[in-house]
Amino acid sequence: MRTKQAIFATALLATSAFAVTAPDLPMTGWATQNGGTTGGAGKTTVTVSNVDDLRAYAEKGGYTIYVKPGTYTVPSKSAINVGDNVTIYGYQGAIIAQTYTGTKNEDNTVLNIVGDNVIIRNIVVKGAGAVDKDAGDCMHVQGGSHVWIDHVEVYDGEDGNLDVINGANYVTISWSKFHYTSASSNHQFSNLIGNSDSKTTDSGKLKTTMHHNWWADGAKERMPRVRFGEVHVANNLFDSDDASHCVRAAYKANLRVEGNVFIGVNKPIDLYDGDYTAVYSNGNYTENTSGNSGSGTNSNAFTPTYSMSITDVSTKAKAYALRDSIQLYAGATLPDPGSSGTVTPASSSATESSSSVASSSSVKSSSSIATSSSSAAVSGAAALTKHGSGSATQTVAQGEAIASFYYTIENATGATVTGLPDGVAGTLDGLNITISGSVSATAAVGTYKFTVTTTGATANVSKSGTITVTAANSTASSSSVALSSSSEKSSSSVAISSSSETVLSSSSEEVVESSSSEATEAISMVNVAKTQMSLSPAVISSTSTLRFTAAHPGMVRVTLMNAMGIAVQSVRVYANAGENSVNLSRRSIASGTYYLNVRGAGLSLSRRVKVD
């Protein structure tokens, strides 16, 4: 099947870079509390390719369910009621669809989470189109507890996208995207937490954390609207031009709203009728907003029983770094089950390491990550415990990925890591710090001693290890290209059909794994068939057509990066199996060399391109 799309997207100008290959970040927030959330871990693993099997395993409970690519349409009045101890994880291209009902009050909900200990990841849930008929949602957590919803894309829910209702508790919703398309004509109200003032039984429940989510085009209200619950809204992105209000504090709501980015929206924080319990607002970034952005709030809101790092968005540069990371990775962007690659973002608090070669084989490095936490300092002795298959003492060649591993942090508020080679970073998420990445092809050869140190405890502790970097072999060296510091860094906003576009270098037939450093860093390259990705005309002066072949249908992220490894534009499109084409328009992007990345639907491709 051949698919052609013209992309018209809001221009993005990134101010920091993102890791394109990194391990899945562990959960944080309310889902980690009161026993935690493990889903179907340790249970039987099954793979499904039809809605009947998906329903059978999900409702029975006690399974890890991998969902193959395809569209799974759930009939109206027949929601999939997800039971206990379940993980649902989608391949790229797995879409669960809502059936439209024109009947008022008919429940056409798709996924209804009623069980305890449930994880939903890497799924697209497509609604039938929002209309005001009091129909069903795409998803709700209805009475379920210990639920983690991560990297999902939910849009066009007929009544809502994703609600947390009827006594649900200990819920974390992270790295997810909520939006509406032209299929929605009314009632673009995305997320309720608590669905009635009269449900006083919700008091003391509805504990929900929402972090690194994106409320995008078409979302008008309920991002979320909260009743009763202790709800933590942290490090999210709100940039829907249609927003009449974003976070609404309704009856008895107890809210912490911190470190969020609000751009071009009305009423970032809506105090509504003033009958909330408490609203604490701190450290949010606002730009071109109207209405209340936190004034009138107070510090009497709940204090989380978990520790969670909050990314600083106090400046435009920091806010845009978080914005770009969320726009790039929110939604169903995780790798397929069993894939060695991942597409989860590095913490924007990470800084690139800088290395210098000593006279011996020992190499010095000054990499570190900043930490912050919403919890106060912890008294007593801290502890670090290593997990993961990667060793704390390992050897890796230039340009190769290390075997990742992580440390859990106990009795402390965070941690720092120093001494890593270029390309390897520490990612702090809650009380876990992950060491991962690919050693830069230009990293100095030698032994790097890294040290992880807790912060925020009265007695902090450290643990160390070594990563020994060896020279790449001649084949690897010949198939890599270093980005020189003199490469042009574009200052223009671009839109893949709007401003930036990339031009395929006529002499390049390589596919490139993109790098993620603001510092000069190499991009490792592998030869692939020319037909996998092409651009015509090869040099964009006005408009060119990008063609790529997808192995299966799914969402594809098309990203333009400048020669410093900084994303200057990113947009998502739906690709069908087979050849797809996308029209790219230059508009105002500056001339220079760029890298065009296509990821998703089984693809991980990049090409060096030029604009002239």
TrEMBL record:
Q: Where is this region: Disordered?
A: 337-361
Q: Where is the Pectate lyase domain?
A: 41-268
Per the record's keyword annotation, is Magnesium included, yes or no? no
The residues forming the signal peptide are 1-19
SMART domains annotated for this entry? Amb_all (SM00656)
Its annotated compartments are: Secreted
**Tell me, which GO biological process terms does this entry list?**
polysaccharide catabolic process
Kindly give the InterPro entries that the UniProt entry links to this protein.
Pec_lyase, Pectin_lyas_fold, Pectin_lyase_fold/virulence, PEL
Q: Which Pfam family, just one, is annotated for this protein?
A: Pectate_lyase_4
| Keyword Secreted in record | yes
Biased composition range(s): Low complexity: 342-361
Q: Which GO terms describe its molecular function?
A: pectate lyase activity
Q: What is its main location?
A: secreted
Q: Which GO terms describe its cellular component?
A: extracellular region
Task: Give the record's family classification.
Answer: Belongs to the polysaccharide lyase 1 family.
Please report the name of this protein according to its UniProt entry.
Answer: Pectate lyase
Species name: Hallerella succinigenes
